[in-house]
Each structure stands twice: as structure tokens, then as C-alpha cells.
From TrEMBL:
Positions of transmembrane segments: none
An example Gene Ontology molecular-function term: kinase activity
PANTHER family reported for this sequence: PTS SYSTEM GLUCOSE-SPECIFIC EIIA COMPONENT
A Pfam family it matches: PTS_EIIA_1
Native species: Klebsiella pneumoniae subsp. ozaenae
Organism classification: Bacteria, Pseudomonadati, Pseudomonadota, Gammaproteobacteria, Enterobacterales
Every PTS EIIA type-1 domain range: 1-105
GO cellular component terms given for this protein: cytoplasm
Any one of the GO BP annotations: phosphoenolpyruvate-dependent sugar phosphotransferase system
Protein name listed in UniProt: PTS system glucose-specific EIIA component
Keyword rRNA-binding (UniProt): no
Gene from which this protein is expressed: crr_1
């Protein structure tokens, strides 16, 4: 989607999922979980606002392939499951499974270092941020 590429919603990274869960990328509080369960926002304990959006145009699936695990307002730790998904189904039906993770409040960020390579969910850092 162009608004991710143009950084309209913020800067960040994209992750190619291999498992079946979207997890909390930081310790914090779940903000909004979209009605279709394909995306959520979270605010870290240090005030960083993140937006996690599974795939491209997955809103068109109207929730098919997604199951909410966490609730809005819930306190979570890094690696806690937020949404479960059916990866084989989504690989078949979604335009892409590439999952953007963007920082919504970039105006408060002094430095953003994007890391790359294979990661272990809930363990390997993918972004280093200085406020």
C-alpha cells in the first residue's frame, strides 16, 4: 500500500511472517485492534506508538483467517500473542503477507535504526529507537 511506502503512517520495517501469531513487539498497552483483526496499535511503556498491520489489503478479507487473542487496553509483554492467523490461507488470499510495523509518533523519535535478517519472535530486536 502506498501509504506505508511513502511513510504516511510512520517509518518502520516490514516482516515476512513464518508462524501463526502476531505478537506484542514491545512491553506496553494494546490500543486499537481493528474489527477485522488484521491490525493493531500498541503504546510502549516509554511512549512509542507502534502500528502493526498484517499483509497488504487484508482488510478486504473481512476478518477471515484472523482470531483476536488480546483485547484493547490489555497490558502485554514482548512476545505475548495479540492475534492468531492462518498463514496458509492468507498466503493464498492476501495480496501479500509482508507485515509493516511502523512508528506512528515519529515526531518524538530522534534516531531509528532498522535491523535486518532472520529473527526469533519475541526475542530478536528489529528496530532500535532513541527518543
Amino acid at each position: 500500500m502506498w501509504f506505508f511506502a511513502e511513510k504516511i503512517v510512520g517509518d518502520g520495517i516490514a516482516i515476512k511472517p513464518t508462524g501463526n501469531k502476531m505478537v506484542a513487539p514491545v512491553d506496553g498497552t494494546i490500543g486499537k485492534i481493528f474489527e477485522t483483526n488484521h491490525a493493531f496499535s500498541i503504546e510502549s511503556d516509554s511512549g512509542i506508538e507502534l502500528f502493526v498491520h498484517f499483509g497488504i489489503d487484508t482488510v478486504e478479507l473481512k476478518g477471515e483467517g484472523f482470531k483476536r487473542i488480546a483485547e484493547e487496553g490489555q497490558r502485554v509483554k514482548v512476545g505475548d500473542p495479540v492475534i492468531e492467523f492462518d498463514l496458509p490461507l492468507l498466503e493464498e488470499k492476501a495480496k501479500s503477507t509482508l507485515t509493516p510495523v511502523v512508528i506512528s509518533n515519529m515526531d518524538e523519535i530522534k534516531e531509528l535504526i532498522k535491523l535486518s535478517g532472520s529473527v526469533t519472535v519475541g526475542e530478536t530486536p528489529v528496530i532500535r529507537i532513541k527518543k
